[in-house]
Amino acid sequence: MKESAASLNFIEHIIEEDLANGFPQEKLRFRFPPEPNGYLHIGHAASICLNFGLGEKYNAPVNLRFDDTNPAKEEQEYVDAIKRDIAWLGFKWANECYSSDYFQQLYDWAVQLIKEDKAYVDQQSSEEIAAQKGTPTSEGTPSPFRNRPIAESLDLFERMKNGEFPAGSYLLRAKINMASPNMHMRDPILYRIVNAAHHRTGTNWCIYPMYDWAHGQSDYIEQVSHSLCTLEFKSHRELYDWYLDQIYDSSLLRPKQREFARRNLSFTVMSKRKLLELVQKKIVAGWDDPRMPTISGLRRRGYTPESIRKFSDVSGISKRDNVTDVSLLEFCIREDLNKRATRVMAVLDPVKLVITNYPEGKTEMLSMENNPEDPNSGTHEVPFSRELYIEREDFKEDGGKKFFRLSLGNEVRLKSAYIIKAESVVKDKDGNILEIHCIYDPESRSGSGTEASMRKVKGTLHWVSIEHAIKAEVREYDRLFLDEAPDSHEDKNFLDFVNPESLRVIKEAYLEPYLSNATLDDKYQFQRLGYFTLDLDSKNDRLIFNKTVGLKDTWAKQNQQVAPQAQKAAPAPSNQGKRKALNEIQQISKKLTNFSGEKLESAKSSILELAGEVSYDELEPLFNTAAKKVGTRIGVMLTLGVLLKKGQARNEAINGFIEAALADDNEVLKEEAEKVNSL
Which residues form the tRNA synthetases class I (E and Q) anti-codon binding domain (predicted)? Predict the structure, then answer.
């Protein structure tokens, strides 16, 4: 029985429609095409889960294809990391492919284009070519080499391949249409000279295809039915199809490109270039630093494949760019670890507790439930003795009525053990507490069935036996950035928002001895502290645990927001914040024509700050704002500028809105339109 239409994402709707129109299901084929110039991050997980998920759903093969067309930035290390991450997520690819496998075929097709007078060798600089391309509202200027004789272009192209020329001296360009409203169609570059060894082909090639040329042709060679790309490639689709038109054989399957929104996550950056900068400047320890949004970093931090796949499923596939709150990702890992993590006890900031009426030298083994969420998880034993460690923050001499942990004269229960009462403290000369002296009720042992064991007390504390505890290093990780969108500020570098408290290292934590046998695959809940996992740096004589996530969303509390973790089900992404941002922009914009000087600049700054929370689909309807509402049009223009800087592609609606503003009498609107038009 097929899923209901409502449960399908829009990509699945496209595929279902194709199947309904007669496309053979056995010809469905997908691919995941990363460039090996960095490690995969949580944003890539959306594409991985989409493509491989479709393969699983339709029993169709999915290729892993490395688009390795830029040897200056690509390395085998990245290839290996990408394969490792995809396999860890639980997906299997049908074929391992490389665009470099097709270099000869791509070259032969390029030669064919030259022979058909559809490509030519240009020898202008990239700056000259860019200047000649024109603007979306003005035609480009043809290259002076556009009509170079075919024989001459063929000769130069072969010599480019043979390494006779330095980088930047010649380019091969497709001859399409310098007047096209789509800037990508204005004689795009097919090949450039790169004097760098390729990680697979070595120095066999001196010229390398541009991504647009390699992308669609590789899909065609592999007979990919649905080429799924992120939204920035939507404006490239016309070029994708033009290239295919030049080589298409009607007896073969023709790929179809369709686009979906990339996944952005709050409180982090998703640009590989910026992630590489974090690594190179040693702000993090490497690509797999547990603070990084990379899949390898999340794995090292203790995230599970299931939690990341759940996050991708809950986040959904969208037609427009948006930002997913990191709390949703944290919700998914909490929900998963709650079901699988073994409950243990660890004390990170210890203070000594002495049970004065407990026999000296006695040790008894207490039973601890491994996981109350899993009835089949079993139990393990924990040693109990006269001298224990508890958390320093769990004791106050005078706690008051709202303090439900240990204080003088009050009772608490020690987890899975006895009820104790604090009677006195021992301090050093500076007044710091060295020891807490307590008495225990011998009849109150948990699970003993005695009347005393049933007695209710308000607090329960975790603890470890000093005699039996093992020492370990604990690394508590927090969000790497303090700002929700660290790379959205025009006047500041994203590094300005690095959280100086993103890593706290506790050199001597005390753990129950059960953890001495921990492995990298084990997941633990340190009672009342959070979820933890063993780190790769651990040795037999030096255990190191990473904090994956806390038991509660403390950031939500800090920001006075409702934590999604408080809900029974995972929260759905909401657009309320974006709607609010757009409404605020409209309210500010209405007053713009009444402002000048500092007031005007301040209002514009406010709009620019809010613009990062607005999507293009929300903004486009305002392009039709009445001409007399100049303030609103200025606000829309400012917001549009931010979207274009973030990667929004130009289209006819955008070009028309800019053209109308350039012809307007209002100087402020015209000035902002000129800025936007130059982007």
Answer: 460-535
Q: Is 35 annotated as a binding residue?
A: yes
Indicate yes or no: pTM above 0.90: no
What is the bridge-based pairing of β-strands 379-384 and 395-396? Answer: unpaired
Question: What digits encode the pLDDT tens for the residues 287-341?
Answer: 999 999 999 999 999 999 999 999 999 988 988 878 899 999 999 999 999 999 9
Query: Is 288 annotated as contributing to ligand binding?
Result: no
- What whole-number distance in Å separates Cα of residue 366 and Cα of residue 363? 10
What distance in Å separates the CA atoms of residue 12 and residue 16, rounded to the nearest whole number?
Answer: 6
User: Is the CB of residue 135 less than 8 Å from the CB of residue 676?
Assistant: no
In contact, 190 and 110? CB cutoff 8 Å: yes
Question: Which pLDDT tens digit goes with each residue over 53-106?
Answer: 999 999 999 999 999 999 999 999 999 999 999 999 999 999 999 999 999 999
342 marked as part of a ligand binding site: no
Establish whether 552 is an annotated binding residue: no
Cα–Cα distance, 322 to 263 (Å, whole number): 7
* 8 A C-beta contact, residue 36 and residue 287: no
Paired tokens of 539: 């040795």
8-47: pLDDT as tens digits: 889 999 999 999 999 999 999 999 999 999 999 999 999 9
Catalytic residues: 35, 262, 272
